[in-house]
Design a protein that fits this description.
Keywords: Aminotransferase, DNA-binding, Pyridoxal phosphate, Transcription, Transcription regulation, Transferase. With about 500 residues, the chain is of the alpha/beta class. It has 17 helices and 15 strands. The strands form 3 sheets. The chain has an 8-stranded mixed beta sheet with strand order 4-11-10-9-8-5-6-7, with helices on both faces. Strands 12-13-15-14 form a 4-stranded antiparallel beta sheet, with helices on one face. Strands 1-3-2 form a 3-stranded antiparallel beta sheet. A hairpin with a 3-residue loop joins strand 2 and strand 3. Helix 3 crosses helix 4 and helix 8 crosses helix 14. Bound molecules: pyridoxal-5'-phosphate.
């Protein structure tokens, strides 16, 4: 059906009255839609803007504005002395499809995803809630010294420094790279200089760039089983096959069959295994390093929260023990500062420093330079160290409160791991206790208790348990929140 009178057509479409879409916009949209749905054919002549305005009872300006916008976007054309016409926007011909083609779009969207995309979405581990009892891995962001941060930020805004507002230097803002190198040498015994430090948006991006620059599609990577879900997601999405390596009290425990098939990468969290919390023993560390050197394997060390160790000094990094430049070290400010900052760092062997700096720039154009400048000051003025000290004391207190709450409800038959460091505890549950069901029931009651079994690669190897983050729960809420969770666990315990 074609439109006989543009005025009648528009009278049915436009709505007058305060508060809605402006009239000129409504006219523009109605004509545009009519052209796209072929109600107005190419070559059709429109009334002059003066006639249209009079017939619709609107101002001439309103009609002119709508026409001008449509002319600017190519829907209408003016012919000198003749008037305004619908432009010919017929697309170039494309070859016909055969008759039994599948529909182009799937309403659910699922069949549109690539195999890797579908796997990523189906196995997604990310939580829909990022705050509150007992969200693991999230620091108490309410205690972040925002006044200091805002003073440093204002200092940078007061001066006009184009280099902070444009794309960053390859590898990141140099003073931050230098501050991170100093910090890592001193606090984590990492062997590095500023040029080896590459600033990223966090561990996810660090892993992504390592795999993109050093891996080939189809390579394999050993991952701890259980491990951080993000590690598997990034590897899978880049076509790298994760191979599950079980962990025991000393960390990754390779079997003979594993050792006979060297992977391209070994992903490990040696200072604080995620999520179980053990520290990789010295002999396993040495064995991994020797194996990596002799088989030319890359070790990717995830050192996500080693700053928070209670009772004993933080342990040195694996990178610091490496004599053959086989370790890529990843760290983050997500736990020591706040996750929304999205700044992390990657330390690469000296020989790869230039390639990685260029790679990050080429793929992501760096990350937020302005925030990097504030972060550099925050570190060099000593605020970073004192914030960590303060939070460590607080988290140690919260850990004790959670341990006491657990002891109040459960006897020693319940196993607790990860109580020496980090931001969460792992509470082991007996095999007949369905941690997914408990987690769902807890979520319905407003509590996050992430199921341990989801962190394993397969159901066969999985153990049941709950990850309980205490860092972002105010002291007085830990006991009451755990009381509620304990009732849910007990209700499932009998099953
Ligand atoms: C083991 C582990 N690695 C990496 C990350 C993510 O780090 P980022 O925020 O720097 O991407 C997390 C976050 O919880 C984690 O637990």
């Amino acid at each position: 059906m074609r439109i006989a009178s543009l005025t009648d057509f528009l009278l049915m479409r436009i709505e007058r009255g305060a508060g809605g879409t402006p009239l000129n916009r409504q006219i523009y949209q109605a004509i545009r839609e009519a052209i796209l749905s072929q109600l107005l054919p190419a070559g059709w002549q429109l009334p002059s803007s003066r006639d249209l305005a009079r017939e619709l009872g609107i101002s001439r300006n309103t009609a002119t504005y709508a026409y001008e916008q449509l002319i600017a976007e190519g829907y209408l054309e003016t012919r000198t002395g003749a008037g305004t016409f619908i432009a010919d926007t017929t697309p170039d011909r494309i070859p016909e499809l055969g008759s039994n083609q599948p529909p182009l779009t799937d309403p659910s969207g699922e069949s549109e995803l690539s195999a890797q995309g579908a796997q990523l979405i189906q196995q997604a581990g990310v939580s829909d809630l990022q705050w509150g009892a007992f969200m693991p891995g999230v620091p108490d962001v309410t205690l972040f010294p925002h006044k200091i941060w805002s003073r440093l930020q204002n200092k940078h805004w007061r001066r006009s420094r184009p280099e902070l507002l444009t794309y960053g230097d390859a590898g990141g803002y140099l003073p931050l790279r230098a501050a991170v190198a100093d910090y890592l040498r001193m606090a984590r015994s990492v062997n590095c200089n500023a040029a080896q430090v590459i600033i990223t948006t966090g561990i996810h991006q660090s892993l992504d760039i390592v795999v993109k620059l050093l891996g080939e599609h189809g390579d394999s990577a050993w991952v701890e089983d259980p491990c951080y879900w993000g590690t598997r997601s990034v590897l899978n999405s880049l076509g790298i096959k994760p191979v599950a390596i079980p962990v025991d009290a000393e960390g990754m425990r390779m079997r003979q069959a594993d050792l006979l098939q060297p992977p391209r990468f070994i992903c490990a969290s040696p200072s604080h295994q995620y999520p179980l919390g053990m520290v990789m023993s010295l002999s396993r560390r040495r064995m991994l390093l020797e194996y990596a050197a002799s088989r030319k394997v890359w070790i990717i060390e995830d050192d996500y929260d080693s700053e928070f160790r209670y009772g004993s000094r933080p342990l040195a990094s694996l990178q610091g023990m490496d004599r053959h430049e086989r370790v890529l070290y990843m760290g983050t400010f997500s736990k020591t500062m706040f996750p929304g900052l999205r700044i992390g760092f990657l330390v690469v062997p000296e020989a790869l420093a230039g390639a990685f700096a260029t790679g990050v720039s080429e793929l992501y154009r760096g990350s937020q330079v302005f925030m990097q400048a504030i972060m550099a000051d925050f570190m060099s003025e000593g605020h970073f160290a004192s914030h960590i000290r303060r939070m460590r004391l607080l988290y140690a207190e919260r850990l004790q409160l959670l341990q006491a709450a657990i002891a109040h409800h459960f006897d020693e038959r319940i196993t607790l791991t990860g109580g020496e460091a980090g931001l969460h505890l792992t509470l082991g549950l007996p095999a007949q206790c369905d941690d997914l069901a408990i987690s769902r029931a807890a979520r319905a009651a407003g509590i996050v208790a992430r199921p341990l079994s989801r962190y394993y690669m397969s159901a066969d190897s999985a153990h049941n348990g709950l990850l309980l983050g205490y860092a972002c729960v105010p002291n007085e809420q830990i006991g009451p929140a755990f009381d509620r969770l304990a009732n849910i666990i007990k209700a499932h315990w009998r099953c």
